[in-house]
Specification:
Layout lengths: L2 H13 L3 E5 L1 H5 L12 H4 L5 H6 L1 H20 L4 H11 L3 E6 L5 H4 L7 E3 L2 E8 L5 E2 L5 H7 L12 E5 L8 H13 L2 E5 L10 H8 L3 E5 L12 E3 L3 H9 L3
Parallel strand pairs: 1-2, 1-7, 2-3, 7-8, 8-9
Antiparallel strand pairs: 4-5, 4-6
Helix pairs in contact: 1-11, 6-11, 9-10
Length: about 250
């Protein structure tokens, strides 16, 4: 990493009045959370369960919950890293009004960002919801019964299907969160994409929307992305070290 990289990113942030931070898996891999979509990631080793299959099959629901509880110890051990803390500092200073994230791990909230400032367009894996009545269900209320019986949980209120509060392949995007993400992208003057491959739509359309609406676009990702050509600044760097230096936190 060069001082010039840090300086250019710092200057872009300081010049902006309304920053949106958009995060993908790359910020959380620095906390030890495995990537799902990249080559060699979880979906390369284990075919994802489609939403339609989850809804149609008890067997698929059992498998989804088995996978969920198998990966939970890794997620539970993860802590916000320097990149998360730097994003939280931008929010604390009032520089960033919103954080849009593709991640489902809750690490932005754990870093101190208020819940209402985090827009989770792919949901959250730290709790579950009934797909019929919307009741929130805590995982600690589900795990013991599942480990005893191996049967997928039903809603205690209405008997409906309970699923982790994530957006699965084939599941509609959450409309409220998408509207909020689009609004923030349209009205920011700087859009910073951190650790996203920018290939998964509709999420990958958000930086394009920001750019077309007049915002500057910064992309920080280890590998090139399809949107590098429209960005004002592209840095192929580790997020925590680069953003930490630019924001001035350890």
């Amino acid at each position: 990493m060069t001082d010039d990289d840090v300086g250019r990113l710092r200057a872009a942030i300081e010049a902006a009045e309304r920053v949106v931070v958009f995060t993908g898996a790359g910020i959380s891999t620095e906390s030890g959370i495995p990537d799902f979509r990249s080559p060699g990631g979880i979906w390369d080793r284990m075919k994802p369960i489609q939403f339609q299959d989850f809804m149609a099959s008890d067997e698929m629901r059992r498998e989804a919950w088995r996978r969920k509880f198998a990966i939970d110890p890794t997620l539970a051990a993860a802590r916000p890293n320097r990149g998360h803390r730097a994003v939280a500092e931008l929010v604390r200073r009032g520089k960033a009004g919103a954080v849009i994230t593709q991640n489902i791990d809750g690490l932005h909230q754990a870093s101190g960002i208020p819940e209402e400032r985090v827009i989770e367009i792919h949901g959250n894996t730290t709790y579950a919801k009934c797909l019929d009545c919307g009741l929130r269900v805590e995982l600690d209320d589900i795990r013991p019964a599942f480990e005893r019986s191996g049967e997928p949980p039903d809603c205690r209120a209405c008997g409906g299907i309970v699923k982790t509060a994530t957006i699965s392949f084939g599941q509609p995007m959450p409309p409220d969160e998408m509207r909020a993400a689009e609004r923030e992208s349209q009205f920011c003057d700087l859009f910073i994409a951190l650790g996203s491959s920018l290939v998964v739509f509709p999420a990958a359309g958000l930086p394009v929307l920001a750019k077309r609406s007049g915002a500057g676009l910064v992309i920080v990702n280890r590998e090139p992305t399809d949107l590098d050509q429209i960005a004002d600044l592209v840095l192929h760097r580790e997020i925590g070290a680069l953003l930490g230096e630019a924001v001035g936190i350890d």
